[in-house]
Design a protein that fits this description.
One of its GO terms (biological process) is proteolysis. It comes from Vanilla planifolia. This is Lysosomal Pro-X carboxypeptidase. Pfam families: Peptidase_S28 (PF05577). InterPro entries: AB_hydrolase_fold, Peptidase_S28, Ser_carbopepase_S28_SKS. The longest helix is centred in the last third of the chain and has 27 residues. The protein folds into two domains: about 260 residues, Rossmann fold (3-Layer(aba) Sandwich); about 170 residues, Four Helix Bundle (Hemerythrin (Met), subunit A), CATH 1.20.120. The protein is α/β, with parallel strands linked by helices and about 500 residues long. It has 17 helices and ten strands. Helices cover about 40% and strands about 10% of the residues. The protein has an eight-stranded mixed β-sheet with strand order 1-2-4-3-5-6-9-10, with helices on both faces. The chain has a two-stranded antiparallel ribbon with strand order 7-8. Helix 7 packs across helix 8.
Length: about 500
């Protein structure tokens, strides 16, 4: 199976019988500086010895968890706050580089910044190496959200003790899966963190909490609003690709047309590659040029549709589709050939997570989607997970462990101090919290916002609404800290 965040969708225009992971939260991630004017954030890389299993007393080997420490321009001293980023499904340095907001605001609060790497990703590998950690279901059994949150809690507790900072309040940050972890950690460990900014965190994308068609419908809506003809060309292209692949030497011809490094084994591989591009574009349709998932221009969907629509009438639809995909995969013009199995940032652990507890059903509607229609079929999903890993998914576990059903009533009664930020261009916003739940659990929703854009580094090209959103987030965080320090004073 390909790596990355699983979208349960096999892009065959004839039959849809199985699923494969085609679109992650983040994808093929490019390095970029989190600071203004090209300066890199200054941090130290450290390691913390973690238990492999926090929930048993079995005699198991420990492992080294990597974390980054910096911020505050050297002015931090207890009880100044700690800003803690909950690491996602990949290398923590990459997340640090692409979360400039945390680094930028830390000096205002004299805050220490900590970016903690998620177990089984980057250099935080149990059993000594990725090969051993990913060996089989026995070695992968400790790759769970519960274990990762416990890692964060133990690391923070130990770090505060060693720094004589037991009174320093902790504010959690996270985007995408990291945003989900930040929200869940605030709920599970309220004594460790006073609040959480959860950006683009689809905590409701489980079971039947939100319609499974939402993700692909939002991606499709973004393209259709840009150009109805672009939408139509993409929608028609799947049947054409399937038919071309059945011709004599059809797969070889398609491989040459799309400049692939290896010849296709089937058209589904190409469909997956294209659907990933469109889905990522839906996530990162930023109003400025960015080097996040890929080096992309400002408003990349507009540029893709310009390429697709720009051919004369009667042109081959496959030429249009390749031109559009090239904006995403080769905007710089430096790629000689495309490797469909490339995983440069080591995100393959998500396949295991999606086959165990992170079951996020996604479908594609016939009328609203530009993708082939598909209804999520759990039995097929479970069968393929068992074939790949020898495990059966637990589709109800996340909502059992963290909640999700009747979220308004539950969080209003039991939760506090969480910001859920979402941009409606982001297809993951369909599984996010989009309404205020209480005075202290607020939803910041922006019509033109893309995937955790608020956590990215500020630029001169930031629209006014984004500047305002970040100002609101800073104001809310200030209020959390003010309440905390005031309560500490009154207790003495």
């Amino acid at each position: 199976m390909k790596s990355f965040f699983v979208i349960l969708f096999l892009l065959s225009a004839v039959e849809l019988e199985a699923w494969r992971p085609t679109t992650p939260f983040l994808g093929r991630l490019a390095r970029s500086s989190p600071q203004k004017n090209g300066g890199a954030a200054q941090f130290e890389t450290r390691y913390f010895r973690q238990r492999l299993d926090h929930f048993s007393f079995a005699d198991l080997p420990d492992f080294n968890q990597r974390y980054l420490v910096g911020g505050a321009d050297g002015r931090w001293a207890p009880p100044d706050p700690i800003f803690f980023y909950c690491g996602n499904e990949g290398d923590i340095e990459w997340f640090s580089d692409n979360t400039g907001f945390v680094w930028e605001i830390a000096p205002r609060f004299s805050a220490l910044v900590v970016f903690a790497e998620h177990r089984y990703y980057g250099k935080s590998m149990p059993f000594g190496s990725k090969e051993e950690a990913y060996k089989d279901k026995k070695s992968l059994a400790y790759l769970t959200t519960e274990q990762a949150l416990a890692d964060f809690a133990v690391l923070l507790t130990d770090l505060k003790q060693n720094l004589s900072a037991v009174d320093s309040p902790v504010v959690l940050f996270g985007g995408s899966y990291g945003g989900m972890l930040a929200a869940w950690m605030r709920l599970k460990y309220p004594h460790i963190a006073i609040g959480a900014l959860a950006s683009s965190a689809p905590i409701l994308q489980f079971e039947d909490i939100v319609p499974p068609e939402t993700f692909y419908d939002i991606v499709s809506r973004n393209f259709e609003q840009e150009s109805s003809s672009c939408f139509d060309y993409i929608k028609k292209s799947w049947d054409v690709l399937e038919a071309r692949g059945k011709h004599h030497d059809g797969l070889v011809r398609l491989s040459r047309k799309f400049r692939l490094c290896k010849d296709l084994n089937n058209t589904e591989q190409l469909s997956d590659w294209l659907s990933s591009a469109y889905s990522y574009l839906g996530m990162v349709d930023y109003p400025y040029a960015a080097n996040f998932i890929m080096p992309l221009p400002a408003f990349p969907i507009k540029q893709v549709c310009k390429r697709i629509d720009g051919y004369p009438d009667g042109s081959d639809i496959i030429d249009r589709i390749f031109a559009g995909a090239s904006v995403f995969y080769n905007y710089t013009g430096t790629v000689d050939c495309f490797d469909l199995e490339d995983d440069p940032h080591g995100l393959s652990g998500w396949d295991w997570q999606a086959c165990t507890e992170m079951v996020m059903p996604l479908s594609s509607s016939k009328d609203s989607s530009m993708f082939p229609s598909y209804n999520f079929d759990y039995s097929t999903y479970a069968k393929d997970c068992f074939t790949e890993y020898g495990v059966t998914p637990r589709p109800k576990w996340v909502s059992t462990e963290f909640g999700g059903h009747d979220i308004n009533a539950v969080l209003k009664k039991f939760g506090s101090n969480i910001i859920f930020s979402n941009g409606l261009l982001d297809p993951w916003s369909g599984g996010g919290v989009l309404q205020n739940i209480s005075d202290s659990i607020v939803a910041l929703v922006t019509k033109q916002g893309a995937h955790h854009i608020d956590l990215r580094v500020s630029t001169k090209d930031d629209p006014k609404w984004l500047v305002k959103q970040r100002d609101i987030e800073v104001k809310i965080i200030k209020s959390w800290l003010s309440d905390y320090y005031q309560s500490r004073k009154s207790s003495f």
